[in-house]
Amino acid sequence: MDFAPLLRVSTRNMASSAPKLVAVAESRRFMIDCFKAVKVPQAHAEAQADLLVAADHRGHFSHGMNRLEMYINDLAINCTDGGAVPKILKETPATAWVDGLNGLGAVVGNYCMDLAIKKAKTVGVGWVCAKGSNHYGMAGWYAIRAMEQGLVGMSMTNTSPLMAPTRAKEAALGTNPLSLGAPATNGDKFLLDMATTAVAVGKIEIQRRKGAGLPDGWAQDPNGNITNDAELGFSTGCLMPLGGSELTSGYKGFGLGAMVDILSGVMSGANYSTQVRKWTHAGADSAADLGQVFIAVDPNCFAPNFEERMTDFNARLRGVKPTDPSKPVLLPGDKESQNMASVDAAGGIQYLENQLNTCASLAEKLNIKPLAFN
Amino acid sequence: MDFAPLLRVSTRNMASSAPKLVAVAESRRFMIDCFKAVKVPQAHAEAQADLLVAADHRGHFSHGMNRLEMYINDLAINCTDGGAVPKILKETPATAWVDGLNGLGAVVGNYCMDLAIKKAKTVGVGWVCAKGSNHYGMAGWYAIRAMEQGLVGMSMTNTSPLMAPTRAKEAALGTNPLSLGAPATNGDKFLLDMATTAVAVGKIEIQRRKGAGLPDGWAQDPNGNITNDAELGFSTGCLMPLGGSELTSGYKGFGLGAMVDILSGVMSGANYSTQVRKWTHAGADSAADLGQVFIAVDPNCFAPNFEERMTDFNARLRGVKPTDPSKPVLLPGDKESQNMASVDAAGGIQYLENQLNTCASLAEKLNIKPLAFN
Fold first, then answer.
1. CA distance B346 to chain A (A)
2. In the record, which residues are listed under signal peptide (chains A, B) (predicted)?
3. Ranges of each domain in chain B
4. Which residue of A has its CA nearest to B264?
């Protein structure tokens, strides 16, 4: 038998251009070690690492390890309290008002969603608002937590100002994401997790790095006009709301972003709109005091067989005639499920080189075991 | 004294080109009479007329008297049951599942929102899902009902298929609107009421009548491509989701439209997605069985002084530096408040000529007192 072709392939895979894959468990281990190095208790470090690695597993790198350095900075200067345990300030059978006490986003978020789930299982709905929170990662994480209990879950958070209201030339709302998860049968689901801006800053950064332009409706210049210049769009920091300009109904995206801030920031008594601090890689100068809302609803309080109908609903939408037969309709969450499957098949997550460099210097700075590759 | 100039003005006002204004009370009287003529009980006729005239008062003509003929057609052929009283099928302290029994949209909607309000006042949240409903007018109506009680109100409904999912060339969701109302101090408020498509069909009809084109992102042609041809966009009947094409994040608008259908149609056990019938001026061939959701939340369950913070939130957004100083930032609901003030100052609503013609023939057909002008 001739093994030459197989060996050649194998050699090629081991060349320096071969992807360096990081197992999901190893990425989690590394992040836990980082958090523990800045005195975060084990349980909190695990909660935060679970959240971040889940984003990388799904292909949402902007909300994964990419954020690690910022969290570590905030923790190192005591701007976030890694050991804080959230506290209930007010409660009814269906609601709770929680103070996150400046704890880690995942700690506050998991606490609040678990409380909402408990209430939903008792009276059908749980509606929990948190103030005193920090950046809580991907909004979909908390919807997934409710879905795992057979419930419909929703979550929203306000964020640092980046979106210019329709007709304005300054940012006054964040990318303010909202999520909704609804379980179907056999593990299928509907999982919406979206910013209320047209795009995230990350997409503008990518166009800028490529030296490419921006489509209409993504970003504004300092005078408040649409810009196609990625450099200018990035430096101005005024994203446009979902819908783009007023002509294409950008005021609806603006309205949605404001809705998210009302339900998360205003209702909880946290910072809102232009009160929210800027958040940069350099660490922050004050506590974020972000507001968040966590909603769980028990579909069994309404028509029976919700999950079966969700399966039919999903099938109807995925089965609509596509414009291009090679690109079938995708439901929110489908791309992420495909990405998880690819990572599992490949045996690990492929991080960008500059992310790996950041990890290497973090490991050195914090004196922890560097990230290992498969 | 010379009255000549005054007389000339007065003569000019009485000329055939002068606007024919209909007092709000008279518009309401006319609609009540129409509903009673097709055997709708007095209280239900009043509820439905209140809803429709409120839309005209706010300048949303598409959701006002414009719909009267369609409602009357549905009632005349017993496709809607004008006398039906909604029934609670299942209940917890925070939730209710309601069967609208094919009653009028306003009757079902008011019943459900009042139930949600009662629950919110007891346990902080009321979440009511209705099946067996009909077209329920402007979604904001029900949010206003909650706001009048000092609560935050939300409502959503599914509608007849008109939106093509991203990547599809067929419609599989309706314009599926959502509303959120939050009260501020001194009668100020935030009132979002938006379809999850980029625009409503009415806007395409207007461009078509003007012989004008469509901006990118409003509508598709039969092959699923963006069209700028208003005639083709109208005849195809495939609106694009908020956000337009995939490049400008139309999949988010698609996700929002699907979210509305899950919370209204799927959760309530009503028709959803492509199950929902087409609704035309000719009357329908079957019961609509639409699904709707009504949510009321008591902000006092969370941080105190919600209305004061809403006033500050509104001021921050209205006060952001405008791109064009002559066009300050408007909040959702501001245009509608301005329109109500204009109607009140003018002494009546100015309907389009073809709307008045429809009213005249309705009056004749139903043998009721024609619409009177101011």
1. 28
2. none
3. 21-77+347-366, 85-194+248-332, 199-238
4. A302
